């Protein structure tokens, strides 16, 4: 067993444009998928029966602002497989600016996160 990668070009380093309900509001968002190793220690996946993990950064389509992280984790079970999805709202970052820059430090405060995330 290992992480199934499929056709990596179909999702890695390609921006996905979708309309989703976030916080009860329909939004045009982007999802930028990244290698699971950016988010996790993938060496622990085999022990946990994880076969696949899709991880991404969620942002607005028409604003240079990301506001969430997501993961779709697929693990093998006795009866097949199970997928669990998690979303972390409030991971705010201004795209195309240095993550450690002063503007992104401000963007990552609780005040900005509460106002940048839909439904808060």
Question: Strands, helices and their partners?
Answer:
Layout: E1 15-22, E2 25-34, E3 50-60, E4 65-77, E5 80-94, H1 102-107, H2 110-116
Antiparallel strand pairs: 1-2, 2-3, 3-4, 4-5
String of helices and strands: EEEEEHH
Strand order of the largest sheet: 1-2-3-4-5
Instruction: Please tell me the total number of domains.
Output: 1
Runs with pLDDT <50, length 5+?
Answer: none
Distance between the termini: 41 Å
Q: What general outline do the C-alpha atoms trace?
A: globular
Q: Fraction of residues in helices?
A: 10-25%
The main sheet comes to: 5 strands, antiparallel
Compute the CA-based radius of gyration: 16 Å
Query: What would you call the structural class?
Result: mainly beta
- The proportion of residues in beta strands is over 45%
| Mean of residue pLDDT values | 85
Structural descriptors:
120 residues; 48% strand; 11% helix; 5-stranded antiparallel β-sheet
Task: Write a concise synopsis of the structure shown.
With 120 residues, the protein is mostly beta strands. The protein contains two helices and five strands, in the order βββββαα.
Q: Can you offer a commentary on this structure?
A:
The chain is mostly beta strands and 120 residues long. It has one domain. 11% of the residues lie in helices and 48% in strands. A 5-stranded antiparallel beta sheet has the order 1-2-3-4-5. Strand 3 and strand 4 form a beta hairpin. The model has no long low-confidence stretch (mean pLDDT 85).
């Amino acid at each position: 067993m290992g992480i199934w990668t499929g056709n990596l070009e179909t999702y890695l380093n390609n921006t996905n444009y979708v309309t989703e309900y976030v916080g009860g509001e329909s939004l045009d968002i982007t999802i930028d998928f990244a290698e699971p190793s950016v988010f996790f220690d993938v060496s622990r996946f085999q022990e946990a029966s994880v076969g696949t993990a899709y991880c991404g950064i969620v942002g607005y389509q028409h604003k240079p602002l990301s506001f969430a992280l997501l993961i779709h984790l697929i693990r093998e079970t006795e009866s097949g497989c199970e997928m669990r999805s998690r979303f972390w709202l409030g991971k705010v970052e201004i795209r195309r600016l240095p993550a450690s820059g002063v503007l992104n430090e401000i963007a990552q405060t609780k005040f900005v996160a509460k106002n940048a995330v839909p439904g808060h």
